[in-house]
Design brief:
By secondary structure, the protein is mainly β. It has two helices and ten strands, in the order βαββββαβββββ. The chain has a single domain, classed as At1g16640 B3 domain (Beta Barrel). The strands form three sheets. A five-stranded mixed β-sheet has the order 6-7-2-3-9, with no helix packed on it. It has a three-stranded antiparallel β-sheet with strand order 1-5-4, with no helix packed on it. It has a two-stranded antiparallel ribbon with strand order 8-10. One of its GO terms (molecular function) is DNA binding.
Length: 144
């Protein structure tokens, strides 16, 4: 599901079912309990995650097909992250409610497509894991 820039297309099926109820920003909540704010933009009939997506994808070293979203409420999506063998990655819960400060909150009108040449890729080579220095006191994920 990851593309190699700061935009990520939301699947049309998800958009048809929940797109009318999404606030801008939406909040992604992976198993480690960190809450990520992501702004989206609409281009033609498609909805794209935009501001905040690149940081989220980099933090979790995501690649094509690694993410499953479950709609929970108007602006919250539960996130499941899978490895290349299709096993869900088990992230230790941080124990406190952490909101990742990956966004400067702006009005919905200021979110726009910055690159019209973006394409959704069917196949993406596995990404190199990026080591990040994090101030969040969580251990590395454990694989089941």
């Amino acid at each position: 599901m990851l593309i190699e820039n700061s935009l990520q297309k939301i699947p049309n099926r998800f958009t048809r079912e929940y797109g009318g109820n999404l606030s801008n920003a939406v909040f992604l909540k992976p198993p480690d309990g960190i809450k990520w704010g992501i702004y989206w933009t609409k281009h033609d009939a498609d909805i794209w995650f935009q501001k905040g997506w690149k940081e989220f994808a980099t933090y979790y070293s995501l690649s094509h097909g690694h993410v499953l979203f479950k709609y929970q409420e108007t602006c919250h999506l539960k996130v499941h992250i899978f490895d290349r063998s299709s096993l869900e990655v088990s992230y230790p819960f941080c124990g406190t409610q952490i909101e990742h400060d990956n966004l400067d909150y702006v009005s919905n009108d200021s979110v726009e497509v910055l690159d019209n040449s973006v394409n959704v890729l069917d196949e993406v080579a596995p990404s190199q894991k990026t080591e990040l220095k994090s101030t969040i006191p969580c251990p590395q994920p454990l694989k089941n």
